[in-house]
Input
Amino acid sequence: MKMVSIIIAAYHREKELFQLIKSLNKLNYSKKKLVIYIVIDGFKILKKRILKISKFKTLILFNKKNMGPSFSRNKALKKIKTKYVWFLDSDALILGKNVLNKMIKYQNQFNIDGVTGYTEKINSVYKVQTSNFYNNFINLETFTDLKEFKTSKNNFFSQSSLFVDRKKFLKKYGLYDNRLRIKEDEELAYRVDKNLRHFLLKKDTLVRHCPNLISKNTVAQHLYNVIKTRQYVVKKNKKNPLLFIWYDTLMILNSLFMRLIYGKDFTSRRVSMMKKNFNFNEITRCILALLKFYLGIQNK
Output
């Protein structure tokens, strides 16, 4: 058995975090070969309780204030030396005792960057998310009934569960951008050409995602934050923002086509969990921000 580190960045969701730790206990893996790193991102939690319920060696790192998922994952990544790393969201659940063994097997069997994927209950049916990551930095998802799903290869990953060979992954993608609090996974993937990104989804390695928090942002507020983040990423990567007029158009046309095929099973899960109320000022701000982005004018 090879050494494996699990990294969990946690911001509140205490109940879900404890459920995840308990589910990790079912893993059929050596206690000497697995270490769990939990980064508590600027909130108070009972450290003793975490250590008490975990059967594996567990190290808890604390951020003095909320620094975001990128900073938290990097903080743990800089400390570990194990061959493999498994990133998990704090609201995930492990479904099978041999999940970790199978991910290691597939990581070595296939020419891939990582093993990823989750299942989530949508309208009382468990479905599997397959990401559609567009050149304009937008990620929409296709959802497939878990009963019908077997395997899939993708050029994007789910941060809810991502298993990688640490050295190879860092060499190819690097660390997360500490400045980003949203779209940090999209920015990481954006550094590598989509034809060179290879992630595997297998039914027997999926985790269960159990979100229960409704976003405080409205859809319009989220879109404004996405535009600002995209502007930062485009400047960082020295891209021409005018190209995104073309990228955005292609995404919209493709999305309409996918909706005709998949209907409600093609959507943005994150946006679907946001408040749908709109107001004129928010919409106007989004339109102006988008125009500024295309013209290369900084949004403040």
Remarks:
- Residues 243-262 form the longest helix (20 residues).
- The radius of gyration is 19 Å.
- The mean pLDDT is 93.
